[in-house]
Write a structure and sequence with these properties.
mainly alpha; single chain; globular
Length: about 180
C-alpha cells in the first residue's frame, strides 16, 4: 500500500468515526428534547407533518436503493447503475433521518413505552447502518462498473445483503411502530 492510500483510508475511518458520534449525539439530543419540551399544538402538528414527510423521503430512498441493489444481485442491473442510484438517493436518506430526529423532538415521544423505545432504536440502527454503508460504498466504487454480484467474494456479498436487510428492517420497523403509536387511542 502506498502512503497516500493508507492516509486516504485513515481519513475515511476518521470521517466514519465522527459520523457515528454525530448520529449518536443527534439521537441523544432528539430524545432529550422530546422528553423535556412541551410544544404548543400548532408546533406538534407541524412537526408531525414534517415527521411523516421525513419517513416518506428516507424510506423511499432506502427502498429505491435496495431495489436497485436487488436488481444488481440478479444480474438485471449493473454495478454502475447501482452506484448512480446510490449517489442520488443517499442525501435523501440522510435528509429523512435528520428530519426524523429533528421533528421527533417535538412529538413528545413516550420513552417509557417499549414500542416507542423500539422505534427509536430502529431509527438509530438505520442511521448507524447508513454510516457503516459509506465503507461498503467505497469498496464498491473500487470495482469495475460491470462486475457481477455473483463474482464478488462471499464476504462482500454477505456485507451487501446484510446492509440492505438491516436498512429495510430498521425503516419498516420504525414505520409500523409509528403507525401503531399514531393510530392508538
Amino acid at each position: 500500500m502506498t502512503l497516500s492510500l493508507v492516509e486516504t483510508r485513515r481519513a475515511a475511518r476518521h470521517r466514519r468515526a465522527v459520523a457515528y458520534w454525530v448520529v449518536t449525539g443527534g439521537m441523544y439530543l432528539s430524545l432529550w428534547l422530546g422528553a423535556t419540551l412541551a410544544p404548543p399544538a400548532w408546533l406538534h402538528y407541524a412537526s408531525l407533518f414534517a415527521h411523516l414527510a421525513s419517513v416518506i423521503v428516507g424510506l423511499g430512498a432506502a427502498v429505491l436503493l435496495e431495489t436497485k441493489g436487488l436488481l444488481w444481485t440478479t444480474g438485471r442491473r449493473t454495478l454502475d447503475e447501482l452506484r448512480q442510484t446510490e449517489r442520488t438517493v443517499t442525501p435523501l436518506a440522510w435528509l429523512g433521518i435528520v428530519g426524523l430526529l429533528g421533528t421527533g423532538a417535538f412529538l413528545q415521544p413516550d420513552l417509557s413505552d417499549p414500542l416507542t423505545a423500539l422505534k427509536m432504536l430502529a431509527v438509530f440502527v438505520v442511521a448507524l447502518n447508513g454510516v457503516a454503508m459509506t465503507r461498503l460504498s467505497r469498496e464498491l466504487m473500487r470495482l469495475p462498473p460491470r462486475v457481477r454480484f455473483s463474482s464478488l467474494p462471499g464476504r462482500m456479498r454477505a456485507w451487501c445483503v446484510w446492509s440492505a436487510v438491516v436498512s429495510q428492517a430498521g425503516w419498516w420497523t420504525a414505520v409500523v411502530i409509528g403507525m401503531l403509536n399514531t393510530a392508538a387511542p
